[in-house]
Specification:
By secondary structure, this protein is of the alpha/beta class. The protein has a domain of 46 residues. It has 18 helices and 15 strands. The chain has an eleven-stranded mixed beta sheet with strand order 1-2-3-5-7-8-9-10-14-13-12. α5 packs across α7, α9 packs across α12 and α16 packs parallel to α17. It is globular. This is F-box domain-containing protein.
């Protein structure tokens, strides 16, 4: 046994050959002690020579982890407050896509990272009205076949075609996309949803009516953004959705080549239906409408209860189209944050009586109307709303101010961050003073409600108001002096007032708030993006101390 062991050492064979028995192990331990003076290499040092390893020998999990370092934030996350464009998802970095083309194995390893931020493009069609369920059928099949249901955390719709529909006959129905949204969230469940679409398409997707008669005035606004977010933990709180399983709607002729093409460019024009159609049709009306006799403050009509009226009775009386009591998009998940970016209204200022023009928008139906007893379509779980527009008319902005939903935080931005005001083509025949006067009127209207004495309606519950625009310096200096005398607010910085929640005046149980003075209610933060001298001062809009003009 000793001779065999010595022979194995001298020949440099694997250590396992010498250690086949416990006797051999003990013998070698005594015969080959560690000797620092010994110049001959030991068996242990020979065995530790590293072998050549390449990336293909790594396990799939480790390969995916390595590719994860190539992940970057989604490009749309940085531009939602800028003027809306369809190119917001474009990125110069394509490292992950390049990696996915190396081999099938690398393709599989990159998919969980590559589709974490997914998008789907609906191209404009000149031949037929696009049916979204048919367009997305191959994408959903691709998701299922690659087990990406739980991977997609963020989803972006880029809808170029304003005539998008979910019905095969092309007709418009009340909340006609209801079935689509419930099916969509049954297959994938993103916590972040962004829709980039023209106002008409956005109206159909959200079950909001969109006034179109004055759309020609707003020609410089090609699309709007609607961004919805929720907590990752809210998945457990989401309502159960009963939808026919995807496998029950398999599509004949779907090949692996088609699925790969979907993954590369999610813009499909001719595919089969994969989502279930509504079991029964609801009352047919327009998702957008034209009404030449309407005014900016026309009262909307409530949708009648089931069985209380018929479509014939609706037609017999001149009235605005009916509106559903709720929107499936807002109800399907407990969203917490909403962003609406309606783009530019600058070109409308070239027209006569521009202040009477009605912008194509989902805002009026989102907020509802107390006077017309129309419920807001914004779900009660949404507590933060961000509204961005470029110089909207005060008559349009009033839809938000007069019927503010029950929110805890509101962010408003009305002045562009780009250099559009220096563009001679876009500013042709536009009076700069008109833009700034409307900006001042919008904020004056909002601040009047914020600091009512006492605040009324949902302003009683609003805790934070923030503007992405700078405050007018003249108006700000007057506000500072008033705040100093009031004593219960702190001047945190230029454009920022705050107070501690313990300084809030308690609500009077008999109605109203004790004292009936300014700065009451739930508001604890009032923040502007700095202070500057505006081209048109807001100071003349004051009609009482600290009531208007910011």
């Amino acid at each position: 046994m000793l001779l065999d062991t010595a022979a194995a050492q001298s020949s440099g064979e694997s250590q396992s050959l010498a250690l086949e028995t416990e006797t051999g192990l003990d013998t070698m331990a005594h015969i080959v002690p560690e000797d620092p003076t010994n110049l001959e290499p030991s068996v242990a040092s020979i065995d530790r020579t590293p072998s050549v390893t390449n990336i293909e020998s790594l396990p799939n999990e480790l390969l995916t982890n390595i590719f994860g370092y190539l992940d970057i934030p989604k490009p749309s996350g940085f531009v939602l407050q800028d003027e809306p464009v369809f190119e917001l998802t474009h990125s110069e970095s394509a490292d992950l896509k390049c990696m996915s083309r190396v081999s099938k194995r690398w393709r599989r390893a990159t998919l969980p990272v590559l589709f974490k931020f997914a998008r789907f493009i609906v191209a404009e069609s000149n031949t037929q009205r696009p049916i979204i369920s048919e367009l997305m059928a191959p994408f959903f099949a691709f998701v299922k076949s690659n087990s990406l249901e739980k991977v997609i955390a963020s989803f972006t719709f880029l809808i170029h075609d304003k005539n998008i529909t979910h019905t095969s006959d092309g007709g418009d129905q009340l909340d006609s996309f209801s079935n689509f949204w419930y099916s969509f969230f049954k297959i994938i469940d993103p916590i972040d949803l962004l829709i980039v679409a023209p106002a008409e398409a956005l109206g159909a997707l959200t079950a909001c009516r969109v006034y179109m008669d004055d759309a020609w005035c707003f020609s410089d606004c090609h699309c709007h953004y609607l961004h919805l977010q929720r907590s990752p933990n809210s998945v457990l709180e989401s309502p159960r959705i009963e939808v026919v399983a995807l496998e029950d709607h398999s599509t004949a002729g779907q090949t692996s080549e088609v699925l790969e093409s979907v993954a590369e460019n999610l813009s499909i024009n001719n595919t089969s239906d994969i989502l279930p159609r509504p079991a029964e049709k609801v009352l047919s009306t327009g998702s957008f409408y034209r009404d030449e006799k309407s005014t900016p403050h026309s009262n909307h009509q409530e949708l009648p209860q089931a069985g209380a009226s018929s479509s014939a009775s609706l037609v017999s009386k001149p009235r605005l189209p009916a509106r559903p009591l709720s929107s499936a998009l807002f109800d399907v998940r407990p969203w917490t944050t909403l962003l609406l970016n309606e783009g530019s209204s600058i070109r409308a200022y070239c027209t006569e009586e521009f202040w009477l023009k009605k912008q194509p928008s989902i805002l009026p139906d989102l907020c509802g109307s107390d006077e017309a007893a129309i419920k807001s379509l914004i779900s009660p779980t949404i507590k933060t709303m961000n509204y961005i527009a470029i110089f909207p008319m005060q008559t349009h902005f009033a839809a938000l101010v007069d019927d503010l939903p029950s929110l805890e935080r509101v962010y408003v931005q009305l002045v562009p961050r780009n250099n559009v005001l220096d563009d001679p083509e876009r500013m042709a025949n536009v009076e700069h003073t008109d833009l700034w006067m409307e900006r001042n009127n919008c904020y004056a209207h909002m601040v009047r409600e914020l600091f009512g004495a006492p605040p009324t309606r949902n302003y009683k519950y609003l805790q934070q108001f923030e503007s992405g625009d700078a405050a007018d310096r003249d108006a700000w200096l007057m506000a500072v002096e008033y705040v100093k005398r009031a004593g219960n607010w702190n001047i945190v910085g230029e454009g920022i007032f705050s107070r501690n929640s313990e300084d809030m005046v308690p609500e009077n149980p008999e109605g109203g708030i004790e004292g009936n003075s300014t700065f009451e209610g739930s508001l604890i933060l009032w923040k502007w993006n700095g202070v500057t001298k505006l081209p048109i001062s807001a100071l003349p809009l004051y009609d009482r101390p600290f009531g208007l003009g910011f």
